[in-house]
Design brief:
The complex is a heterodimer of chains A (383) and B (526). By secondary structure, chain A is mainly α. Chain A is 69% helix and 3% strand. Chain A has a two-stranded antiparallel ribbon. A two-stranded antiparallel ribbon of chain A has the order 3-4. In chain A, helix 2 runs parallel beside helix 13, helix 3 packs antiparallel against helix 11 and helix 9 crosses helix 11. Chain A starts with a helix and ends with a helix. Chain B folds into three domains: 138 residues, Rossmann fold, CATH 3.40.50.300; 182 residues, P-loop containing nucleotide triphosphate hydrolases (Rossmann fold), CATH 3.40.50.300; 76 residues, no CATH class. In chain B, 35% of the residues lie in helices and 24% in strands. Chain B has a six-stranded mixed beta sheet with strand order 6-9-10-3-11-12, sandwiched between helices. A six-stranded mixed beta sheet of chain B has the order 18-19-20-15-21-22, sandwiched between helices. In chain B, strands 2-1-4-5 form a four-stranded antiparallel beta sheet, with helices on one face. In chain B, strand 7 and strand 8 form a beta hairpin. In chain B, helix 9 packs parallel to helix 16, helix 13 packs across helix 14 and helix 13 packs parallel to helix 15. The longest helix of chain B is centred in the middle third of the chain and has 16 residues. Chain B starts with 24 loop residues before the first strand and ends with a helix. The N terminus of chain B is likely disordered. The chains are: A mainly alpha (383), B alpha/beta (526). Chains A and B meet through helix 9, helix 10, helix 15, helix 16 and helix 17 of A and strand 1, strand 4, helix 2, helix 5 and helix 11 of B. The complex binds adenosine-5'-triphosphate and magnesium ion (MG). Adenosine-5'-triphosphate sits at the interface of chains B and A.
Chain lengths: 383, 526
């Protein structure tokens, strides 16, 4: 029990299960999956499919956030890549040609990489704050996408090869789900089978100590922005291929916020450091399951408000202060009970009464700790 | 197992000159456990007004944890705490401070991007018409610092100062709070003899005014000089409490380590060095006129394989600055460095690492360890970055390396998957050393490597450095403890005011000789 509760993924996972059950309460066939024309269909499949682009963007975002950065430009990058690919396919004579589609995809992804390289350059070489650096492309990117498409609204829907990316099936499973799954696996291998994950975490926790340990933090940071750009580009392709319109103004609009949310819900701290890809995956599913629930149970208009509520709930569950308050409540109770000195305390209560592991800042003990500003400021520089 | 007889020394009533009183702090039956670690088990502790009470024990014995239990940083699993006769259970350090307990924690935790004055007055800012009165703040801070005989500009940013100065600022802050209880967890770990002297003068002054002082240090000389009483912990358990003049050092040490002294003596023996100059063959590194404006004046230095070059000097004399240039942590703007006769530009730590140079910073928290990563990850970090991120050190090899060094340096707890930030201060220091040792450097730069390390482990580390140099490693050794520098070095560079003023071969040199050199040079215009 102690072990399970100390696992950081447990809370997001419980929230996801709760959301799925809530969905089931409104739609009794929610868990049904049926085979139609040899392909899988059902609400759960829809959730997975809708989550796929967010998963992609959020995976890139996870690594960026782990280095203490943030990438606000992912939505714009998705728009650039998606609209350029659509544009290229439509304006080529033969939209159904696989070669045309492959070229479109290849060039679009290259553009996304260039965008990522630009962000990485601003952050790692020029040392600009990530939020400012990526704001540049966030605003300029959509403008760029409009210039590319000459502000036309695009309909790339007579290209089966392109359609496959976001709307097609392979081996009975939606292709986008497979793609997101593969990318998830590759990201896990890239970060955990190489030393990249550890080095990213080191740079995120303590940049100066990392530098003195000989880590080339500049290239590490560059890599994560490149990666985030590439995945945003892929998400852009997925989004445009799955819709009937590709308006550069709406492709991937606010997807950066969903991605950041997924990352944070998944337990990766915005202060950088340790990250969890599985947590991000769960986070993305939570967002989709929530959207589905709100649309059927309340109304589409309430989505944002509801989303905010779930976010607050998850944040509170993860906040060290809130946990300390829970701990305090338990301690209050413990004080009332007479605990014989030296008696063995049950493992459960020991886990609760030792807040230290989850709270690096409070555990270190501040000389003053009289104001909150100490916590926030020092965590920015010394944690 | 320890015996359950917790022998209490006579209460101060018997000591005569101290005021008769009841304890201001009384802790009993304190137990705290963390996942997998019983940090404290049924520990009792008491502190009287007007005494300096030292808390003694090896690294990881539970000293800092007992302090944090008192000040409410940690929640106790069981036991009771009485302060001034009332049962208390502080929910955080702020509460403890309000109740009259001022604390300097082992890992100095001030706000580095604020000024010295702001740090001293944080949370207690003088106000005028509801607004912070900056002038009064600076004026008061200057006075506080002057009382400690410190020459620090209150308007300077804290981060621009060395760890030693930051430690002094934390002490100044705590002293200024005018509490009934002053807790100092290893306040002297990076201070020179002079600052220690100043600190002790202040401690005596406030002790005589009736303040109770809890003091932690691994320097036995300091403990015997300043304290009236001491409490010994071992492995999270109380061993005993004594009046200092009743307990010979030898007995204290054996109480702390739980064995007799033979083992320690053997270690000490091993580090006695022959001060033969090892200049046969070419130098490993040669620095000529290397300096950095505003940081350190150009200096020359030659280090040969197998040679230990010690750096001696007072606080702020430029020892760390010199070392950082040799590692590329800072870039020199004058002079040139050659390694084995080849000119190299040490533009970054990475380039130094590729040239087989290693540097263990004195500031393990800000510049050394990655607190949120495991002991294993921290130990292999430099080796990993040397290999590049694509070639991960196989997990099995990581485990073997971690295990080997956990054993060699006696890092506790022995679990390689423990998060470094949960280790005791001394054990963290050992992890940092392990990281650099496994890179098998040709030149190892150690800046205060024994900071916060207990006496047993200190002797062990000194012995290790000696044997590494015997095997051909070049070492630059910086320590505020001159005896340590003298014991290990073949040659000693003496620094003052960011200038290397002399270099001597360590033959028949004494601490006094070095102090005199520093003082004599100070008299003449450099
Ligand atoms: N937050 C924590 N989480 C887990 N274990 C901890 C935590 N804090 C301390 N410990 C463990 O408790 C034990 C006692 O640590 P403590 O810091 O009190 O030692 P110490 O006597 O101050 O040692 P040092 O001389 O090295 O400073 C150690 O084994 C340490 O690893
Ligand atoms: Mg300690």
């Amino acid at each position: 029990m102690k072990h399970v509760l100390s696992n950081r993924l447990i809370w997001p996972a419980l929230v996801l299960v709760a959301l799925l059950l809530a969905n089931l309460a409104f739609n009794h066939s929610f868990f049904n999956i049926r085979l139609q024309n040899g392909n899988l269909f059902g609400p759960l499949v829809d959730i997975l499919r809708n989550a796929a682009p967010v998963v992609l963007v959020a995976l890139g975002m996870t690594l960026v956030i782990a280095t203490r950065g943030i990438d606000l430009s992912v939505g714009a990058v998705a728009a650039i890549s998606g609209s350029w690919a659509s544009m290229h396919i439509i304006s080529s004579g033969d939209p159904s040609s696989v070669r045309v589609v492959l070229t479109a995809v290849g060039v679009a992804l290259l553009m996304a990489l260039v965008a990522g390289a630009w962000n990485g350059f601003l952050v790692s070489v020029l040392g600009i704050q990530p939020i400012v650096a990526t704001l540049v492309l966030m605003t300029a990117g959509r403008g760029l996408a409009q210039i590319i498409t000459s502000e036309k609204i695009l309909y790339p829907d007579n290209s089966p090869a392109y359609k496959l990316i976001g709307g097609g099936y392979l081996l009975a499973v939606p292709f986008s789900i497979l793609l997101a799954g593969i990318i998830f696996g590759l990201t896990a291998i890239l970060t955990r089978r190489t030393a990249l994950g550890t080095l990213i975490e080191a740079v995120g926790v303590n940049p100066e100590a990392s530098r003195l340990a000989g880590i080339r933090s500049r290239s590490i940071i560059w890599i994560v922005y490149l990666f985030a750009g590439l995945l945003a580009g892929l998400a852009g392709l997925m989004l445009t291929s799955n819709s009937t319109s590709a308006d550069p103004n709406s492709i991937g609009l606010f997807i950066e916020l969903d991605a950041i949310l997924a990352v944070v819900i998944g337990g990766t701290s915005l202060a950088g450091g340790r990250f969890s890809l599985a947590g991000t995956l769960i986070g993305a599913f939570i967002i989709e399951a929530m959207n589905t629930f709100v649309i059927q149970a309340i109304s589409a208009r309430a989505t944002d408000v509801f989303k905010a509520c779930v976010v607050i709930a998850v944040m509170i569950l993860q906040s060290p202060q809130a946990r300390a308050m829970v701990t305090g409540a338990f301690r209050g109770r413990k004080r009332a009970v007479v605990v014989p000195a030296g008696s063995v305390v049950s493992p459960g209560s020991a886990a609760i009464s030792a807040p230290a592991p989850a709270t690096p800042d409070t555990a270190d003990g501040h000389t003053a700790a009289t104001s909150d500003s100490i916590l926030t400021k020092s965590s920015g520089t010394t944690s | 197992m320890l015996s359950n007889t917790q022998s209490y020394a006579d209460s101060p009533d018997g000591t005569g000159d101290r005021p008769v009183a009841t304890p201001i702090v009384e802790m009993s039956g304190i137990s705290i456990s963390f996942p997998g670690v019983k940090a404290l088990q049924n520990v009792a502790f008491r502190l009287f007004p007007g005494e300096v009470h030292s808390l003694m024990g090896e690294n990881g014995a539970g000293k800092s944890t007992l302090i944090k239990a008192l000040t409410g940083v940690y929640t106790i699993d069981s036991g009771s705490i009485r302060v001034a006769g009332n049962d208390v259970l502080f929910s955080g350090p702020g509460e403890a401070q309000n109740a009259g307990i001022a604390t300097v924690y082992q890992e100095v935790n001030l706000v580095t991007n604020l000024t010295v004055a702001e740090n001293i007055m944080l949370g207690r800012e003088p106000r005028r018409f509801g607004m912070i009165d900056w002038r009064a703040m600076r004026k008061h801070s200057r006075k506080v610092l002057a009382d400690l005989n410190l020459d620090i500009d209150p308007g300077s940013l804290l981060e621009s100062h060395s760890i030693a100065v930051q430690q002094l600022v934390a002490i100044a802050r705590a002293v200024d709070i005018n509490a009934q209880v002053l807790v100092l967890d290893e306040p002297t770990s990076s201070l020179d003899a002079r600052e220690v002297g100043e600190l002790f003068t202040i401690i005596r002054k406030i002790r005589d005014s009736g303040v109770a002082i809890l003091f932690v240090s691994h320097f036995l000389d300091q403990v015997y000089e300043i304290s009236d009483r001491l409490t010994v912990l071992r492995n999270g358990e109380l061993v005993s409490e004594h009046l200092v003049h009743d307990l010979p050092r030898i007995d204290l040490i054996s109480k702390m380590i739980g064995k007799d002294l033979a083992a320690l003596d053997e270690l000490e023996e091993g580090t006695k060095r022959e001060a033969t100059e090892r200049v046969s063959g070419g130098a490993f590194l040669h620095a000529e006129g290397v300096g950095k404006t505003g940081s350190i004046k150009p200096y020359d230095l030659e280090i040969h394989p197998g040679e230990v070059v010690g750096l001696a000097g007072l606080l702020g004399s430029g020892r760390t600055e010199l070392a950082r240039l040799l590692y590329g942590a800072d870039k020199n703007d004058s002079g040139a460095i050659t390694i084995k006769g080849e000119p190299v530009k040490l533009r970054s730590p990475r380039i130094a690492l590729d040239n087989k140079i290693a540097f263990a910073s004195e500031d393990r928290k800000a510049e050394g360890l990655i607190g949120d990563l495991t002991v294993r990850a921290n130990i292999v970090l430099a080796m990993q970055s040397e290999r590049g991120w694509l070639r991960q050190i196989p997990r099995k090899q990581q485990d073997e390396l971690a295990e080997k060094y956990i054993k060699a340096l006696d890092i506790r707890p022995t679990n390689p998957e423990a998060l470094v930030r949960n280790l005791s201060g001394g054990n963290q220091q050992k992890v940092l050393l392990a990281r650099w040792l496994i890179t098998e450097p040709k030149l190892l730069i150690l800046d205060e490597p024994t900071r916060g390390i207990d006496i047993g482990a200190k002797a062990q580390i000194q012995k290790l450095v000696a044997s590494l140099s015997d095997e051909g490693m070049a070492v630059v050794y910086i320590s505020a403890e001159l005896e340590e520098v003298l014991r290990l070095s073949h040659r000693i560079g003496i620094m003052r005011d960011r200038v290397k003023i002399a270099e001597i071969v360590n033959q028949g040199v004494t601490v006094n000789d070095i102090m005199e050199t520093i003082a004599a040079e100070a008299g003449q215009p450099a």
